[in-house]
Design goal:
The complex is a heterodimer of chains A (about 230) and B (about 240). Chain A is built from 5 helices and 16 strands. Chain A has a 5-stranded mixed β-barrel with strand order 8-9-10-12-11. In chain A, strands 1-6-7-3 form a 4-stranded mixed sheet, with no helix packed on it. In chain A, strands 2-5-4 form a 3-stranded antiparallel sheet, with no helix packed on it. In chain A, a hairpin with a 2-residue loop joins strand 8 and strand 9. Chain A is about 20% helix and about 35% strand. Chain A folds into 3 domains: about 45 residues, OB fold (Dihydrolipoamide Acetyltransferase, E2P) (Beta Barrel), CATH 2.40.50.100; about 80 residues, OB fold (Dihydrolipoamide Acetyltransferase, E2P); about 80 residues, Ribosomal Protein S8, Chain: A, domain 1. Chain A is flat. By secondary structure, chain A is an alpha+beta fold. By secondary structure, chain B is of the alpha+beta class. Chain B has a single domain, classed as GHMP Kinase, N-terminal domain (Ribosomal Protein S5, domain 2), CATH 3.30.230. In chain B, helix 1 packs across helix 2. Chain B is globular and about 55 Å long. Classes of the chains: A alpha+beta (about 230), B alpha+beta (about 240). At the A-B interface, loops of A face strand 5 and helix 4 of B.
Amino acid sequence: MLYIQNRELVVPGQLIAEGGYNVREGAYREGKQVYASVVGLADLRGQDIRIIPLQGRYIPKPGDVVIGVVVDSYYSGWILDMNSPYMGNLFVSDLLRRKVDLVREDISQYLGMGDVVVANVKDVDERMRVQLEAGEPGMGRVKGGKLVEVSPAKVPRVIGRKGSMLNTLQDVGECRLRVGQNGRIMIWGKNPRMINAVVEALLMIEREAHISGLTDRVHLMLEKIKSEGGE
Amino acid sequence: MKKPEKLIVNGERLDGRAPDELRPLKIEAGILERADGSAYVELGANKVLAAVYGPREMHPRHRQQPDTAVLRCRYNMAPFSVDERKRPGPDRRSVEISKVTREALESVLFLELYPRSVIDVFIEVLQADAGTRTAGINAAAVALADAGVPMRDMVSSVAVGKIDDTIVLDLTKDEDQWGTTDMPIAMVPRKKLITLLQMDGHFTKEEFEQALDLAFKACEQIYGMQRQALREKYAIKQEE
């Protein structure tokens, strides 16, 4: 038995449902009852109950694509800041996808301090030590582009339903975007003015995520800047 | 102010409230830009600000707990929050209040989700008129929820006491000073679990039960306002 509607705003401690539901993140079970544990929108899908949080830090989980910044290196890899309470660990072999002879090879040629890296979260253990990998095509060190940071809770809005917002940004903004689950977004494009327009659009998404009709407004704004033309 | 003859005249308190009436309460969520979560509470003449940072990496590292997050609370009174300037910095009173506040909040948080990290709660009293620790806890609970920290429930808090042999709710500074008993209480409203209970003065068993009853009802009311404050901040607005 459900006590709320789909997409309804819930606050911690609010009763959501009673009975045999699958409780996902943002909710918890107490006996038969299911309660919300964060402020967010209820996402009810069949037997699954999930609360989409509206606030909060990025907590790494396996399978996420993140954008990290190299803050330290050690004998066989690097430590990446992921805009999270936890640092990420990237071994050379998980970057190059081959065996690396550390005696012969100097790994500093692959990544240096301050480099931006697109990586995949390979594993997170119970002590929240994070293993990253960046061997897939399109991953690894980022060359050029612009990095923007938004709240990790707003990432679903940046992507939009079935990627609608992301498509708008890329098509109208004439840019290519890479969105990390940790709220970092890379933008590549030819036209600096449109890149700045997309940055503005992203900041607008973050600011106005709670006001409906967002995709249309972003579309309008980008079209307007585009039509103004110029250099 | 000199001690008044009577603290309750014709069933009315010095500020015109009934014995079981709260002071006007205002709660606002998410008012600080830089904090992960924040709240501002006004309870009568009390003005309290709470800010939450985290979960974030714990420094110093040796205080990290490998299996859980750590909650750190700081209750601090501004030098200008009271009539006579308060010497800034932590003193015996604020260290104690910080500790009991932490313990009042700790049990509702899912700290085990964030091993090795820390959640910082700062409570700043801008203006004090008795009951600042309860106002601080109310603000901190809203700020924690605003920061997106998973919690079992909110924590609501209120003080009860005895003045002129009457059990009253939410004492003001004058009532606290001239009254006989002051008892701050914090609780998890849904399950009626008490997470803070202190007492200055004394109650008989019957009085204590009556006072507790009063506090339960008031916390229910505060709980509603805390939830309302969060709803107001996060409600989906229609396009203007």
